[in-house]
Amino acid sequence: MEALIVAHGLQKYFGTFHVLQDIDFSIRKGEVVCIIGPSGSGKSTFLRCINQLESIEGGYVSVDGEIAGYRRDGNHLYPLSDREIARQRQSVGMVFQRFHLFPHRTVLENIIEGPVGVQKRRKQQCTEEARALLKRVGLAHKADAYPGELSGGQQQRVAIARALAMKPKAMLFDEPTSALDPELVGEVLGVMKELAATGTTMIVVTHELGFCREVADRVVFMDAGRIIETGTPAEILENPTNPRVKSFISAVL
Ligand code: ADP
Ligand code: MG
Predict the structure, then answer these.
(1) Distance CA 66, CA 215 (A)
(2) What is the distance in angstroms between the CA of the first residue and the CA of the last residue of the chain?
(3) Which ligand is nearest the CA of 178, by number?
(4) What is the CA radius of gyration of the chain?
(5) Above 0.90 for ipTM, yes or no?
(6) What pLDDT, on a 0 to 100 scale, did the predictor assign at position 1?
(7) What CA–CA distance (Å, rounded) separates 182 from 190?
(8) Contact at 8 Å (CB) between 213 and 179?
(9) What is the pLDDT of residues 128-142, one digit of tens each?
(10) Do 46 and 20 contact (CB within 8 A), yes or no?
(11) Which of 16, 19, 50 to mutate to test the pocket of ligand 1 (most atoms within 8 A of CB)?
């Protein structure tokens, strides 16, 4: 099947620091890929490049055939305006370690902000969809609550619903459970498992190796700005041959 998201020869610098070095990556529709690796290896930066939150210095990212930041016309690529980039970015939803909900808006208002305010879709329709999404993440009863009244796990589930409300083609998760108390991790992973089981294309940066083993179609290992291993969960997690992968996994477990 054709790839939904591709990174090819991706190069990213922060000043003179070469943070992403020649990244080649692809994910097919419906696939779940987990990215693991040590802190500082470039995992967050890679997700941010996919979602055009960072500029890149070489190579390209494409989502569903569109080159990020460009419009194709015959054999030519033309840079997009900021407005067109904002439109293009909606094709990928992102969930961060911290939830970034609007504190003075209710849960429901947080979820419809994007579809109504940004996508200019009808409020009534978006409200119905938001209620369905809240049900899906187990929070139908919290529609009128404010973020501050929710636990971290509940806030993260709202953040997932809010990203889904934009109807993205793929979802990126950047350590979505790292900021949570241990007893709240399971409810968020449960929602992500349900998304995976229903065909959502997902790239998940996580240290939850149990989740990787259970849910990932493929696991990618990053170290020092490079992808150094990619394989099935069994290949990467159970029988790592690369010594760096091996020592990382034994440290996390
Ligand atoms: P990871 O998510 O794997 O922990 P990051 O992508 O956050 O790694 O960071 C990769 C490297 O880039 C780290 O060395 C980090 O300090 C550096 N870095 C991240 N963001 C910036 C930035 N905005 N400016 C300069 N350096 C950065
Ligand atoms: Mg990170």
Answers:
(1) 28
(2) 34
(3) 2
(4) 18
(5) yes
(6) 66
(7) 14
(8) no
(9) 999 999 999 999 999
(10) yes
(11) 19
